[in-house]
Amino acid sequence: MLRRPPTPETTITVRASDHGSPALFVDQTLRIRITNGSKKWSYFEDGELRVAISDTAPVGSIVTTLPVDGKAAIRLFPTSSTFKIDDYGKVTLLTAVNPGIHQFSVLAKSPQGEIDSLTVVVEVTSAEKIGPRISSASCGSITVPENRPLKNFKHIVALNATGEAKFSIRGSNKYFEIDPTSGQLSCPALDREEQSEHLLVVVVQDGDRKDSCTVRITVADVNDNAPQFASSTPQVISINDTVAMQDVVYKFSAFDHDAGANGRVLFDLVEDSSFAFDLVPETGELGLVREPERVGKDWMIRVKAHDKGVPSLAVDRFIRVQNTRSSPKTRDAQPSFLRQKYVTSIDEGLTRGQIVSKVATSSRDSRITYSIVEGNTDSAFEIDSEGVVRTSQELDYEIKDLYDLKIIATGAFPNQIKTQMIVEVNNVNDNPPVFPRQSRKKVLESKFIFIGTLPVGSYLTTVTANDADNMGALEYSLDPKEERFVIDRFTGVVHLATSLDFETVEEINVEVKVPQSTGADEVIAKLVAFDRDSGDNGRVSYSLVESHELFKLDSNDGKLNLLFFYSMPAWIRN
């Protein structure tokens, strides 16, 4: 009976002898692997692992790293002069190897003495047969902003490539080009509204051998399209005695080709000297809420359609109102708010006292008291006797991004009336990007492990920074003088660009920069002024007293825009 030895593999020598005088013989060595299908303890997930290396791999190269957890003792069987394994599961090369198949077992022994094994098959290939291999970390998906020419925005990296290797893009495309030597992709300004996604097949050719990979490029939306009123929008709106209070007189519609918040259109009634109408921002419904007074038969209203982008883009439309209504005989004793729900927004970080919105009732009696009774967290808002809501403190998007206020009105009428105001806090770029705190990592050389063994083009790591403002994709860069490493501009993937020599430098500190950017044409302030007069007498416009090359002021809505780009660097030392 063959007893199961303490290890799953053993070597025996078989001798065949004849019966002559003297007897002649021959020996045959056999390697016997004994498996036990009923074993209960399993350490390795699979029974066999296959890896491939080149016969030019230098001594100390990492052949493979096994997933070990330190709960079992591991060793090679049989003991090898070619390979070595450490307590962390890292298998390294002790000597130069010839092309062919090399096989050994890794034994794991539990504290209870249970044993499991993994067969490792190393295929050593002649360097003459190894072609270039594109690093998968340098391909894949990437998101880039529209409307910006991007030079060297992505670096395709190949291993095992000689100096004769050339990069190219398979097929025809009208936007992208690749540097045939460096593998860096560039493109002119892209338009998301024209094409939101691009798929490239990048090929590296080295002699008669080549490799390829796919790069999927998604174009991120920038708010570059202003809303447009529908072509059916009338120039004249008529109201007569058939129109009752709270009836919808007209429903405005507009479209915006941008995506997300950049394409979300809201409406505002910018000017109405009659104070007879109310416009619901979300739906564009223009309702008759009060009898028009102190105006003639005709007057003009101005309606604005604007998006939720940063900065917001808007368009105005003037509408003539023709009024043929009879004068009212009685007035309603119980007024109501013009809207049951107000929706507005304000930027974070502004000083206290900023006007948020204004509520109004159907009553023209000025003796009305307004109060905020719910949702006013930390007393962030206040309301005056005219229904104007202002901030009473500086708001912070990162602390609270939405307030749901309940507002009541009391006066010379039987019952108090109530309405709701939703205040959205707009995020502005007021937080620099930061790298997460992490322990110091060092790559040390021992007799058999050193970073100098990594081939050029090897993937090293991915650096990731966080931006609490979430204002778009972060961009990573290295010092322009850094030639040992390359970093992907939008993903933070780092590859080795040159061979490293431990005898020359033992440790390398690399600085990665992520700029906090205030982009060109970004709104940095908004001015608001009121005029109690009506018509053109009450229409407010804005202008700069002295022109300035860095700023632009919108004459209609008071938005002050920065024209040029600047950046504030945030640095990390790894």
Automatic annotation (TrEMBL):
Residues 136-229, 231-337, 338-435, 455-551 form the Cadherin domain. It is found in: Membrane. InterPro entries: Cadherin-like_dom, Cadherin-like_sf, Cadherin_CS. Its main location: membrane. PROSITE patterns: CADHERIN_1, CADHERIN_2. Keywords: Calcium, Membrane, Repeat, Transmembrane, Transmembrane helix. SUPFAM superfamilies: Cadherin-like. Signal peptide: none annotated. Transmembrane segments: none annotated. One of its GO terms (cellular component) is plasma membrane. GO terms for molecular function: calcium ion binding. GO terms for biological process: homophilic cell adhesion via plasma membrane adhesion molecules. This is Cadherin domain protein. It comes from Ancylostoma caninum.
